[in-house]
Structures are given as C-alpha cells and as structure tokens.
Amino acid sequence: MTKRKQVVFRILYFLLIIFFVVVSKLNTAQEMWGVTGSNFAGSNSTLINPSLMSASKVYLDINLVTADFFAQNNFAYIPADDFKPTRFLREGYKFPTYGPDEQAFMRYDNRDLKRIFSSIRVKGPSAMLVYNDHAFAIHTAARSVVSGNRIPYEIANFAYEGLNFRPQWNINYRDYDFNFGAMAWGEIGASWSYTYYKYAFSRWSAGITLKYLMGYSGAYLNTENIDYIVLNDSTIDIRNMNVEAGFSLPVDYNNNDFPAGNTFKGSGLGADLGITYTRTRKGHSNQKYRNLCEQPFEEYIYRVGISILDLGAITFKDNAQKHAFKDVGYYWERIDTLDYTNIQNLVNEFSNNFYGNPVASLVDNSFSMMLPTAVSLQADYHYYKEWYLGGYFVYPIMFENSHLRRPAQLALVPRYESNELEIAMPVSLYDLQKPRVGLSARIYFLTIGTDKLGSFFGMSDFTGADFYFSIKLNFRKGYCRDKRSEYCTNGEYQ
C-alpha cells in the first residue's frame, strides 16, 4: 500500500471512529485573566462579570480589537525538549515527527478519560460608558469553540494509531456518556450595570449582557452508550449503540462544495448575569456629575462577585440534519473498502447499515446547541498602593443538550496596576488538575499576555497554548481637559 493510500485509509478510519463511537481527533477562550480582572478592563470586564463595569477606573472605554487563542488536551503532546522557541529560529529547522507513521505529535499511553477544548474569541469594535451609577456597553465578537468530554482512551488511541492497532483488538469495550461538539458564531450584544445600593462603605452592583447570536456552523456527537469490539483492521462488531448526531455546515453535502447561500445557518439569544459587592476604602460619593470625566474612582479594600456566563443557545435550521441511532448494532466487515464521494453518501451509508434504509436515521432538520455555560466567582483585594490580588473560580454548567463544555478553572492573579503600566502573573489550575503560570503586560493602550507561559519556552510537554492581546483606548475617571489643554482633578477633590 502506498504512503498516500495509507493516509487516505487513516482518514477513513478516523471518520468511521467519529460516526461509530462519537469522538474527534484531538486538535482543541481562556478567561484572559490579565485582561478581564483589571480595573482598566472596561468593556472586557463583562467577559467575566457584567456588573464589574461599575467599578471601572475609566468612564469611557473604546475597544478596537481583543483576541484570545486557546487550546488544551490531555491526550496528544510534543515533548518539552522538542518544543523550544530557540530551535524554531534556526535556519532549516524542521518540526520533529514521531512513530512509524511520522505523526506530528505523541500520545500519552494511559487509560484516563480524554478531554479537549479549544476556543477562539475575537472581540471587534466595542465601547463602554459610565454615567454616575449606570454603566453601558455594546459589543461585537466572533467566536469558535471545540469541546470533547469524557472521551474513552481506546477511542483516542484508535484515532491516533488507526484500526490496525493490534493491542486493542478483540477486546469488548463498553463506553458511556461522552460527547463532542464544535460551533462557530458571531455575537452582537449590549450590557448594563447599575449600582443599586450604597451605604457607608458598602456598594452593590448588578449587571446583565444580552447577546444576539448568529450561528455560522455547528456539529455535535453525543453517545449514551456503545458496546463494540474491533476484531482486526477491517472489521468492527458494534453490538449495541445509542448515539445522536447533528450538523449544520457551510457545505453542500451532495458535492462538498462551499455554496454561496446564507452565511449564517442558525440564530439564538445569549446572556451573562452578574452581581458584585464592593467594600470601599473611603465611603462613596452621592454627587451626580454632569461631566463624565469628573466622576471619581472610589478606591476599595476588596470586592467579591458571582456571575453566570454564556447562558443561551443557537438553533440551526438552515442546511441542518439531526440523526439518531437508538439501540442498534452492526457487524461491519471490510470497513477498509468503504467508498463515498461526499458527506451525504457517508451519512446514508451509516443509516443503511444500521437500519437497512439510507434515510431512516434522519429524525429532524433542525437542532439546538447550548453555549459553553459556566458559573463564576470573583474576588479582588487591594492590599497596597498599586498592588492587587485577584481570585477566580469558573465551573461549567451542563444542560441536557449541552455539547460544549467550558473547562473548570481556579486562578490566583497578583498584579501591579497603574495608569500607564500593568503587569499580572496568573497562577491557575486548569480543569482543577493542571497547574499553570501566565504573564501579561499592559502599556497604555496595548495588552499582551498568556495564561500558559510554559508552553512557549519548553518548560513542559506542549499540550496546548494560550495567547491573547487587546488594543483599546481608555479615558480615566477624575481627569478632565479644559480649553487650555490642562488637566484638572474632579470637582470632589479640587
């Protein structure tokens, strides 16, 4: 068999594993702790809690672009010694390959359940305005999320090695409750925060973000159970399977072309909700300011908040298919000779094999996918001059039709924060298991950071990466420019 045919068969094997046992090849936004927790975060603070806008050090914030690229998995990796930036700069450097098939990465040989998560968030033109006890913001964003949860180890191994992985032949595997999901969408949103209670040194604020969601594509595979044996590289005995799958893609399923149809295949609504308590250092101001720049920033000792993030769903109705395989089985021989020319052929083949009818598995022409919903707790302590210490906890909420799982995270973020310069060093536990150290820096309008510094310097095996940046304009509270272009402080302290 030629190397090209081996590659083709490997892809076919991989696709079969997807549809048979509901998993995906491991490819996989972080919370951007160096951006969202700052008092200069402006509209970006709504990403962790919309009520935080009321505590901002700026009265006007104009976000030009904020982007976050994040990926993490616990199955595939590049050894630390092979992933060092200094090597990439060498002339003629080539990435190493592994194994007889020259894979681009290695796999962890253990029996842990596998999880993958990737997120891309590009926040476009957005703005925030604080007016006394009210704060308002508008947002635009494009997002993409890929999530795999509780993937059995042997399925991940078959995806990597192919069905000719002899150590896993003739073993009766019984797997339960795992899923895979991927979705890309756009957002247009508006936020409102209101400081509804102020007394002595206490201040309470509540906030909400409402988002209109435009689904570009979505797909999921949800497995209730599967009982199967891989007998050899061409035969799978599926004894029982309960699987549901849905997809809505910007592709013509009959010829695999990208048609010039509707850009968005679905739509929906989303929301973020939050509340924050602040203990101020010198009380609060009850004065109402006509000039926005006169508003003072009220220094605090600490603040704590709670929020629900990404509550909502997108319903896909355009070019959408939902398939169900309920209590079915099939003894599939010569699986390596499977021949198909397009996506629809492949789907019909599976339906015909399990039901004896090429369209019997199709149960609906629409489906819904939940956003990666989570609950979040935040705390921030101002312990000395420009020095702060933040703490954050994020935990996923999974509903019945949830197919995107946001990873759990616990983070401690010390930071130095001044008007011109800000430096933060997040220390976090990803999925409450993997410790990571990050670093971010803001100089005036530009912020660059990562929550996984080790991945860029070969400090540990490369299992994913995180990088974010933000370019925005901030107008600070308490600073006004008069006709002579001189600064004066706000009226309360002049």
General description of the model:
The chain is mainly β. The chain has one domain. Helices cover 10% and strands 50% of the residues. It has five helices and 25 strands. It has helices at 3-21, 33-36, 85-88, 153-161, 343-355, and strands at residues 58-73, 76-77, 106-107, 114-123, 126-131, 134-151, 173-199, 202-232, 235-248, 266-280, 300-316, 320-332, 362-364, 367-370, 374-384, 387-396, 409-417, 421-424, 427-430, 434-437, 439-443, 446-450, 464-476, 480-481, 487-488. The strands form three sheets. The protein has a 21-stranded antiparallel β-sheet that branches. Strands 2-3 form a two-stranded antiparallel sheet. A hairpin with a 2-residue loop joins strand 5 and strand 6. Helix 1 packs antiparallel against helix 4 (153-161). The longest helix is centred in the first third of the chain and has 19 residues, at 3-21. The protein starts with a helix and ends in a 6-residue tail after the last strand.
